[in-house]
Amino acid sequence: MASLNVGNLGEYLREQRRTAQLSLRQLADAAGVSNPYLSQIERGLRKPSAEVLQQVAKALRISAETLYVRAGILDEKEREELETRAVILADPSINERQKQVLLQIYDSFRKENAAEAAAAAAQAAQAAEADHSGATEAAGATGAAGATGATEAPAGARAVAAERPADAPDAQPDA
Prior knowledge:
By secondary structure, the protein is mainly alpha-helical. The protein is built from eight helices and no strands. α2 packs across α3 (about 35-40). The N and C termini lie far apart (about 85 Å). About 15% of the residues are buried.
């Protein structure tokens, strides 16, 4: 669970309360919490439970998930998923069977995309590892070639020289 950021939460609650044109006492009554307790939450002195946040959200007519994110109880991705599910479940124009089918499709798309993202991340990690290993091997080969001495020709050059005919212009005459 993420740590609570109650200062940010309190400022947000105060802003939402003022936007709704509610006094602290009115919001406390509507949410079913005490006036001093709500004041302490707004000032960042108290860490409210998820249940209290849900009551306050209902009284303010805002998403409880938004308050959970502000409080650090829920991360942004989880909030988006929950809101999507809530919208589907609250839609009066589709029946319960259709809602369940739609949620199953939604879940399958999320799983598919998560699997693709994981595969892409694994592929990127393998590519990065290969690049790192290749650079390390190249550096090691350069170091090994340097250790053999600058006067010695690389093996490939020796093989080419051995394949040249004796009458080639750069060939040395026999003594």
